[in-house]
């Protein structure tokens, strides 16, 4: 009887005590551990296909861009860190970024819609980052309506940067 009570007590303790889980990318003192990301963060590409894997990797880059802005990084530094993580994800999963583009340099529609959907999963971080990403003209205020609109536009903006680079602009 005492053994059963101990098991029940232990089970209840496990349920009520706070537990800490780190579901993000491995970070050290110098930021993201790119080697660890490349070696250990494997996407189920054989199950979902390379286009879906590309979309997931690109979306993670878009979210990391926002996360880095929220850490106080300047735009250029945040984008650089986002790109580094994206490259580690691509390399670690044997993905080629060029495969996400149509012949005309636009992003494939299925990849575009998946990236947008997945970037929206970090919407709160994006919304928090927008005032630091967007410099409004003198005299224009960041209203809640404008913030919502810019937050909604962010995934398209992030993808647009890839299309511009692809098209040499």
Helix-and-strand structural type: mainly alpha
Based on CA atoms alone, the radius of gyration comes out at: 20 Å
Please provide the ordered H/E string of secondary-structure elements: HEEHHHHHHH
The description of the largest β-sheet is: 2 strands, antiparallel
The order of strands across the largest sheet is 1-2
Please provide the count of β strands.
Answer: 2
Intertermini distance: 74 Å
Strand content: under 5%
Number of helices: 8
Number of domains: 1
Spans where pLDDT lies below 50 across 5 or more residues: 9-24
The percent range for helix content is 55-70%
What is the residue-averaged pLDDT? Answer: 84
Shape: globular
Blueprint of the fold:
Layout lengths: L1 H15 L10 E2 L2 E2 L1 H7 L4 H4 L1 H21 L4 H18 L16 H11 L3 H11 L10 H23 L3
Antiparallel strand pairs: 1-2
Helix pairs in contact: 2-5, 4-5, 4-6, 4-7, 7-8
Describe this protein's structure.
The protein is mainly α and 169 residues long. It has one domain (31-166). It has helices at residues 2-16, 34-40, 45-48, 50-70, 75-92, 109-119, 123-133, 144-166, and strands at residues 27-28, 31-32. A two-stranded antiparallel ribbon has the order 1-2. A hairpin with a 2-residue loop joins strand 1 (27-28) and strand 2. The protein is globular, with a radius of gyration of 20 Å. The protein starts with a helix and ends with a helix.
């Amino acid at each position: 009887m005492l053994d059963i009570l101990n098991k029940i007590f232990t089970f209840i303790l496990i349920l009520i005590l706070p537990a800490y889980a780190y579901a993000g990318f491995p970070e050290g003192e110098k930021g993201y551990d790119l080697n660890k990301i490349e070696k250990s963060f494997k996407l189920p590409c054989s199950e979902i296909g390379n286009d879906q894997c590309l979309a997931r990797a690109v979306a993670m880059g878009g979210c990391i861009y926002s996360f880095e802005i929220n850490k106080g990084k300047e735009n250029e530094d945040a984008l650089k860190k986002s790109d580094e993580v994206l490259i580690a994800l691509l390399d670690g999963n044997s993905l080629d970024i060029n495969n996400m583009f149509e012949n005309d340099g636009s992003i494939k529609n299925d990849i575009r819609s998946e990236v947008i959907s997945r970037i929206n999963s970090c919407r709160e971080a994006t919304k928090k980052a927008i005032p630091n990403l967007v410099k409004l003209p003198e005299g224009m205020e960041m209203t809640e309506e404008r913030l919502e609109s810019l937050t909604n536009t962010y995934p398209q903006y992030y993808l647009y940067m890839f299309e511009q680079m692809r098209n040499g602009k």
